[in-house]
Write a structure and sequence with these properties.
heterodimer; A: alpha+beta; 4 strands; B: about 575 residues; alpha/beta; Rossmann fold; 3 domains; nine-stranded mixed beta sheet; 16 helices; about 40% helix; EC 2.7.11.1 (chain B); transferase (chain B); kinase (chain B)
């Protein structure tokens, strides 16, 4: 609920504020995970060069984190910053939707 | 029950291993619990008790069977859940601290999620696997898995992942419960029953005549026999209780022991010894005929014997009954204080018939009484049809007989004409039927009591007058007068009349006696006078006779003298005369 409220307050196209903090949860070397890592790296380099921190977490190794972040569907990428927080699931192959999720859709 | 269960246990291990749920009654219906190491689907509408049943499965497993459990909540947060079940006495936090329970809240918010391609639910598997392994869980609940469908769009992925989830759960060897919301025309909205094919339990919450009854049905249970009926269940402060109500085998033991009704004269009518222990007795009658008084007297007597009694009051509050009964010299308060008497007061329309049965069942199981009183059963008619009420009472009587508990029902009959059937149609079920009725005569109403039937014992066929005095209840023989039976003041009057008649009659007798005496005296006097008269007559007669004799002697003497003188003899003459 709190997130939604912030949705209203913060301008959706705001991409100049701060670095992008991204957390990608994957499950070992599954095909989806490998694709997701490749895709998101490409997207970040193309659109957010130098302005992002990408943390890749294998929940097989750290199952406790999966609970903390409420991970169900994987691959899952959580955009921690800037607000609003968004959750992107899938192998990130749909670039348009990834950009929309990152709040970069207007730029493309 | 538990003994027979244990007998079944080893036998069914060869076919299908089961896990006891610990939920009262459910293990009996399923003949040993849920299939071990397999998922079970519990489906039902909103508010039918799915979550509660599944959490009870987990908690009972952790507490009673030492099987830790994982509860995956898709709907409620862990503290919300803890709060909701705290009212049932389940301390989830403590169990979590003891590592017997783990609650994992999974939150899916569609608005936060952007789907960007292929994905799977490996995250769920990992979390679940982690939770299971961390406490060595044997039981898992997924409540409600269908929330995944509202959060995620890709149905194809969801369905394959669910299929994988269930086989994964089986591999893990955990006994799982999956809950699902009931859909239109299908058991669950998302067709979960397709995946969970071993055991499906349907919960239902039906409102009939504004009264809700929860029911449970085992729709499917592969590889085992199970009860197929709909069983009512109750959610109360002790959790869920299901009552397997159709175990009507009619193979109950019977007792020859007799117990007093608390009214001596009534015991006298019942062959002098009272009712059979473990029997059922119906007291029916019109309003105000003292049915409750009889019931209270029965309860009082049981408590005086130091036996436990449970009194189901359907009409009056316990304090009302206690007050009213103290006016006729029955002190129930002391029995309540000593814990021998327990009142369970509830309005009939508090819940459905089946629920009443479950509640009574529970109460009886808890207090283990030797005497049970239901006062009255008439009001059950308000919440069910005659046949339903009868069914319920059959089961109740059956259960009580099995437990060797004596029961007294009271029933109000509305018509003043003595009917051969009570309104509830239970008269054929009970062992004894005592009828109290009004006898209206001579401008007053009195109570007449008679034993309509009493199985297996000699009983009186007489109508007795049932009197309620300050010192308790009593039965008096009614007076059979020329105008039929007399009761109440008419009887008293008749008795007085008889007494007066007696007095008059006895004084008449005394008078007659005296008269006879007098007559005798008169007659005796008469006899005496006649006697003396007779004597005087006799004397008179004797006198004449003597005179004649004397005369004759003198005449003869004279003649002899004359003769002698004629002959000139002097000496011989006196001699001959003397000889004569």
């Amino acid at each position: 609920m709190a997130y939604e409220q912030e949705d209203f307050n913060v301008d959706e196209g705001n991409n100049s504020a701060g670095p992008y903090i991204l957390r990608l949860f994957i499950t070992g070397a599954s095909p989806n995970s490998i694709r997701a890592v490749e895709n998101i790296k490409a997207i970040c380099e193309n659109f957010l060069a130098g302005n992002y921190e990408l943390e890749i977490i294998d929940i097989h190794q750290q199952p406790k984190l999966a609970e903390g972040e409420d991970v169900i569907a994987v691959p899952l990428m959580i955009k921690k910053s800037p607000y609003p927080q968004r959750r992107l699931i899938g192998d990130m192959s749909d670039t348009q939707r990834v950009l929309k999720g990152l709040g970069l859709a207007a730029n493309s | 029950m538990s003994k027979s269960q244990k007998k079944i246990g080893p036998k069914s291990y060869s076919t299908l291993a089961k896990v006891l749920t610990g939920i009262t009654g459910l293990d009996e219906i399923t003949e040993g619990g849920l299939p071990k190491g397999r998922p079970t689907l519990i489906c039902g509408e909103a508010g039918s008790g799915k979550t509660l049943m599944s959490i009870e499965f987990i908690v009972r497993g952790a507490i009673q069977y030492n099987e830790p459990g994982v509860f995956v909540a898709f709907e409620e947060k862990s503290d919300e859940l803890a709060m909701n079940v705290a009212s049932l006495g389940f301390d989830l936090k403590k169990l979590q601290d003891e590592k017997k329970l783990r609650i994992d809240h999974i939150h899916i918010d569609r608005s936060e999620i952007e789907e960007t391609g292929e994905y799977d639910l490996e995250g769920l598997f990992i979390r679940l696997g982690y939770a299971i392994d961390s406490i060595g869980a044997k039981r898992v609940v997924l409540d409600t898995l269908e929330n995944l469908f509202s959060g995620l769009d890709n149905l194809a992925v969801l369905r394959t992942e669910l299929r994988r989830l269930f086989s994964w759960l089986k591999e893990k060897g955990v006994t799982a419960i999956i809950t699902g919301e009931r859909g239109d025309g299908s058991l669950t909205r998302q067709g979960l029953e397709e995946y969970v094919s071993d055991c499906v339990i349907l919960l239902d919450n039906r409102v009939v005549n504004q009264i809700t009854t929860r029911r449970l049905r085992v729709v499917k249970y592969r590889g085992t026999v199970h009860g197929t009926n709909e069983y009512p269940f109750l959610i109360d402060q002790d959790g869920i209780s299901v009552l397997p109500v159709t175990s009507l085998k009619m193979a109950n033991k019977v007792s020859n022991k007799r117990i007093s009704t608390g009214v001596k004269a009534l015991d006298g009518m019942l062959g002098g010894q009272g009712l059979f222990q473990g029997g059922s007795v119906l007291v029916s009658g019109t309003a105000g005929t003292g049915k409750t008084s009889l019931a209270a007297s029965f309860a009082n007597e049981a408590c005086n014997r130091k036996e436990m009694c449970v009194y189901f009051a359907m009409e009056e509050s316990p304090s009302q009954i206690i007050r009213n009964m103290s006016s006729i010299g029955i002190n129930l308060q002391k029995h309540v204080d000593s814990g021998l008497l327990y009142f369970n007061a509830s309005r009939p329309n508090l819940y459905g018939l089946e629920m009443h049965l479950v509640a009574m069942h529970k109460c009886i199981k808890k207090y283990k009484p030797s005497v049970v009183i239901v006062d009255p059963i008439t009001n059950f008619i308000n919440i069910g049809s005659v046949s339903e009420v009868k069914n319920m009472l059959v089961r109740m009587i059956d259960f009580l007989q099995e437990e060797q508990i004596s029961v007294m029902f009271t029933a109000l009959s509305l018509n003043t004409i003595v009917s051969e059937q009570t309104d509830e149609g239970v008269s054929s079920l009970v062992d004894a039927w005592i009828l109290v009725r009004d006898i209206e005569f001579n401008g007053e109403r009195n109570r007449g009591l008679y034993v309509m039937k009493s199985r297996g014992m000699k009983h009186s066929n007489q109508v007795r007058e049932f009197v309620i005095t300050d010192n308790g209840l009593n039965l008096i023989d009614v007076y059979l007068g020329p105008d039929g039976i007399l009761t109440g003041s008419a009887r008293e009057q008749q008795l007085l009349l008889e007494k007066t008649g007696e007095a008059i009659r006895s004084s008449a007798f005394v008078r007659k006696d005296r008269e006879i005496l007098r007559k005798r005296q008169v007659l005796e006097a008469k006899i005496a006078s006649l006697n003396s008269e007779f004597e005087s007559v006799e004397e008179e007669l004797n006198k004449v006779y003597l005179e004649e004799e004397l005369k004759k002697q003198i005449l003869e003497k004279n003649r002899a003298e004359v003769t002698r003188m004629r002959r000139g003899e002097t000496k011989e003459a006196p001699k001959t005369s003397r000889k004569k």
